UniProtKB/TrEMBL annotation:
Residue ranges of domain TonB-dependent receptor plug in the record: 75-176
Gene Ontology cellular component annotations, sorted alphabetically: cell outer membrane
Protein name: Iron complex outermembrane recepter protein
Classification via InterPro entries: Beta-barrel_TonB, Beta-barrel_TonB_sf, Plug_dom, Plug_dom_sf, TonB_rcpt_bac
Amino acid sequence: MAFRKHLAGTSSVPVLALALVGGMYPSIAAAQDTQPATTVQEEEGQPVDEADEENVIIVSGFREALATAVAQKRNSDLILESVTAEDIGKLPDDSIGESIARLPGVTSQRLNGRANVIAIRGLGPDFSQTLLNGREQTSTGDNRAVEFDQYPSEVVNQVLVYKSPSASLVGQGLVGTIDVRTIRPLETGEQIFAIGAKGSYADLGALNAGSKEFGYRANATYVDQFADDTLGIALSAAYTDEPYQLQEFNAWGYAGNGEPGSPFVIGGSKSFVTSTQLTRIGVNGTLQWQASPTLMVTLDGFYSNFDDDQSKRGIELPLAFGTTFDPNTATVVDGPFGGFAEQGTFENVEGVVRNDVFQREADLYSGGLNLDYEGDDGWSAFFDFGFSRTDRNELSIESYSGTGYNAGVGATDTIQFFSDTEGTSFQPTLDYSDPNQIVLTDPLGWGGSRVQAGYYNNRIIEDELFQYRLGVAKELEGFISKANFGLSYTDRSKSLTPDEFFVMPSGGATELAIPSSALLRPTDLGYLGLGPIVSYDVRDLIADGTLILEANDSNDIPAKAYGITEKLMTAYLQFDVQQDLGAGELTGNFGVQAVNTEQNSTGIAFVDLDGDGGQERVDLSLGDNYWDILPSANLSLRFDSGWVFRLAASRQIQRPQLDDLRVAIGYGLVETNNGQSPTGQYPFIDGSGGNPVLRPYRANAVDFNVEKYFAGGAGVVAAQLFYKDLVSYIDGDVQVFDYSAFPLPAGNPPATTIGLLRSEVNTGGGNFYGAELSATVPFDAFVSGLQGFGATGGVGYTKTEIENAQGNVDQIPGYSKWVANGTLYYDLNGFSARGSVRYRSEFLADFTGFGGNITRRLARAETIVDAQIGYEFQPGSALEGLSIYVQGQNLTNQPFVSQFDVPEPRAVIDYQEYGRRFLAGFTYKF
């Protein structure tokens, strides 16, 4: 068959060697090792003579990366998308997240302007899994989803996004599995030493005192082979020191109900100017040893130190929720849900000036050892060990100041407001930058009898994972070309230790002047009309004793702590198939994966055990053990004409968020008949907290693809249809729960240990389905004069019909009905230019609140525009090996906006403006 010819043949278009750990997934690797793109003659089954080969144009840079991705897609037996580095240490984008977000059916959510979490097929990061070189990873976030800014883009060689699983793909997600891969030195096959650097500029400027508008990144990579190419080494290092700026409007919510006399009106505002300084060092190393013609040994190591330091300065204004509002003095207009107050005046407003700090520090360690045996008798085997650990500290410090201690004491403000689709702006009468008027205190008496001038919350998280895999395979003759069997054992543990304090003025004072030595340049909130505010670093005031810390000894604090362990034993049996069928060839695999899960959570509850009204500490431990059987099949019918038809079917799971499995449960007795007892008996136990017996999301899935390859294999048009029957969903609700493992609270003994638990629960699901259309088109395939020009991109549509625990159609976190992206490029003779656009329709976005709590809000549709231009000096030039480039990100200054959960466009909750970013840099390969 011609298809097998171009798989085995030598291409005239060299592409970057790819980093696949074939021993981990031997059956996948056999089908997925990216082959060189073919010439038109090869595609049509014609011979290529030596004269033709002399005139072949060598493709490099962005076009080479696209050709690699097209070949990867074509040759794989799984449905996948991929992105490959254009050169050593040079992904097509500034970040991994940005590059992945340009793949068909994939998009991202921005955090502080960075694309750090990924949504596949319109669903958020809770529904996908991320691997590093095929191994599961811990994360710098609270959830399982990897935040991609923990990995420097300069150390990444390739990213694969599997949209369909196979039995041998361990660690798969519900909507997709993302595999980040680094360099394999023996597959690179040449000595390389490359360095690179870039500078960045944020056009919003240095918004907070002490922040920066300029940053930089630097990286170096070394690859070499020794001992007759039997020993290879690859070392990469990258350092980042970059600022990110944010101007934000935030509303507490909206008062009123839209009825006459009660229009919707802003209830309160807590708006900040945020300056983030991201510093990160990432180091990656790989050692490969061809110990014998049949045995390859690969040793990997990765380390990242991540420091995300934020200064957040702004004003908190209690408006309709804290003052009297007269709608007769306001301009009220009709909206979709009744009246909406567009402008008016609030009187007696007591503003709270905020000088907050959020600092997240994380150390990520990852590595592994792989032994891959490929016998000459058809037998192959592998052993793989993987390790990942993240040590993370999240420090949040709130600091309050105002015109006086307690509500109704200090000077008040009269503020005019103007609300529109971009949020609310104000006209105050007070000067919030006057240190003679603004003092350190508890302006609204939030601390009660305690003078609470702020709050200190340090979250200490440890996340550790060990993984062991073993597999064996045998090539066979006939329809079944190979049999694969494997075992995997994963042991993961995650713990949280809270450390919380009240921030108070020293010496028992109710208010203190801000020391003149601590005063910084005022922060300008002019974009909201609020003008400048007094600014300082609360850490300096704590260090010099102006503010002191008093431990929060509430039982609520230790009750937040948890420890979670998860032990997974996975076994799989997979058969690869290859069979000529008339003018085509059938390839693929089918098999089954069996997963045993043993999960356990430890924590603390406080319960009145002796009836004295006090709360006694109770140490808790609870978990579950269950099996999942996951059959799968991936079949591809391939034709010499370039057509490929794919059908995939599988049972898929996605494990719940780890912190949802916590056993920290508060509970007590309900003595009186309230009609809620699940057994009809009283007293009964009622509680709330985590759910240590929570089961995964589960779905039955079918995918169908039609793909047409052309232009010598460099171009493709693909249509994808998918359907998932979600048989188990996770949602917040009240469930029947057995408290037999818990100490009983004091009082009349409950009639039964069967009670209620308010937590995340497994419910019936529903279905979601959709379609994707993608293409990579080199224009010279149709018009010879357009050599070097081309386009790539795709559009995806997803429809969800998921019912929540109450039986209503639910908005799935991260879900967008439409996602689309496209890149128009020119790449020839060293010169390259491209412009990219990506779009996603409205979605339910995750926001991290104080103390790490996740809040979900409806985010508006957004369109992001980026561009890049560069030049690579050609062979023979005095500067051969040097490439230079300039990038622009978010060129239209697209904001990130969320709104109130009624379709009133003026009821804005968040309006975050990140500004534009510009980068200029170079790479030099010796």
